[in-house]
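pasting input
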Amino acid sequence: MEILPYCRNVYYYETDRMDVVSHTNYIRWMEEARVSFLNKIGMSYHKIEEAGFMLPVLEVKCKYKQSLTFGDSFCIYSYITEYNGFKMTIYYEIYNKDTKSLCASAQSYHCFTDKNMKPTRINQKAPQLHDIFINAMKVTYSELK
Amino acid sequence: MEILPYCRNVYYYETDRMDVVSHTNYIRWMEEARVSFLNKIGMSYHKIEEAGFMLPVLEVKCKYKQSLTFGDSFCIYSYITEYNGFKMTIYYEIYNKDTKSLCASAQSYHCFTDKNMKPTRINQKAPQLHDIFINAMKVTYSELK
Amino acid sequence: MEILPYCRNVYYYETDRMDVVSHTNYIRWMEEARVSFLNKIGMSYHKIEEAGFMLPVLEVKCKYKQSLTFGDSFCIYSYITEYNGFKMTIYYEIYNKDTKSLCASAQSYHCFTDKNMKPTRINQKAPQLHDIFINAMKVTYSELK
Amino acid sequence: MEILPYCRNVYYYETDRMDVVSHTNYIRWMEEARVSFLNKIGMSYHKIEEAGFMLPVLEVKCKYKQSLTFGDSFCIYSYITEYNGFKMTIYYEIYNKDTKSLCASAQSYHCFTDKNMKPTRINQKAPQLHDIFINAMKVTYSELK
């Protein structure tokens, strides 16, 4: 399966007094990219919720390498790097769209739960969803970085 | 009834590339000040919700006069300027805590609704809440601006 | 001159505990739409800054009519409704992209200043920029609301 | 040296549609707590900047353990866990102020740079600042968690 990265412009209000994007916004961009990625693999948040599951964030990590500022555009490449029907890790690379330089790499760690936030094995409870995540581990990007 | 204004420091991430607080944050500060004001008059959001009501925002207005930046503190004085048991207007003055200069004046317009967002007269449905809002119109601030 | 509205999806982190977009974000969306609009008319923030001017926000107003939530997309139509070479008013209509219902109408008020924030007449100081703003008052949208 | 933790209420606009604080805000809270901590140890951002240095964020990590929501208050305990005159690691524990339960633990990684973002050894360039950071590693909190 071949998809496109998640791209957009930096917003003015996302910059801080150093004239660069506040590092705090990258965690928000990871969420934007994750939502877009899950839509593209056919597994939207709404579909997950309608199936009775939730996908809370257990942990995030982000390494900042180069800054972005107002006027820049960025692209985020998301990858499922670990998935076992119960826990999932998503890895993100954030690139400056024009210079192609890597601005940040990041990870978010998740587990599946039921509506009451009780951890749940979707490989057992929802095999059809499980298959979609398994396939999504093989996603590649059609657009070169 | 005499109360204190809502005061806090500017956060680093609230500044933008002009090295001043992004004008977009003042609308958030109005919400912070409103929550604090309602707590002080004995009418917290939780109390409003527990009584079966909601207080959505119908309109906001904000006039920007002087900028604030990282390192500054501000104080917000909130006043109920209109209230008729159904609609309510809150007026806000945002001051630089140190220089005492007026940085912005703002207004938010609200109506009371039930849980289904249907407009509701709380003077009829909840006279005891109504009295609290009537009294809150007479609030004064103990701290000089 | 015919342009397209500014459209995007609602982000998950833009919702609040009422399961709707926090009203505070609409002011940010106005800024996003303004930046996009100015780009489209050939008058980007960078171009304004390079010419030695700034365009601070003097006042904002926003009327909330219908809520948006996660999963929704919106389109913003921006119009210069007043411009005299010195002050400018931009009017915004925010539509739910799918239902076509009007979610909010808003205004931002601006003046032109020099780099030291001193109010400046760009019709006198920069006639070629002035002409662009004059023309931008006639912008229409190719996409029906 | 004994200091107080950084405490405040959750803001309404910090919640998301799950009725809990968006996980993206914890990174902002870390910045708030860091600024407060540096003020308390006598090493404000302004002092660092005036001495000709900057303290960019190289990496952040945050583990989410328990959620917080509107109406809750939290306290953040910050600790310098690594410092060598060049790089610094700050560790944060975020507690629910009322229940005393640990809601998140987090780390931010920094290095010192000059005004041009070139990495700099402050132990050599500014020994008096260096001493303050060395002493800050021994900070304890007067308020029990």
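fyi Residues 25-40 of chain A form the longest helix (16 residues).
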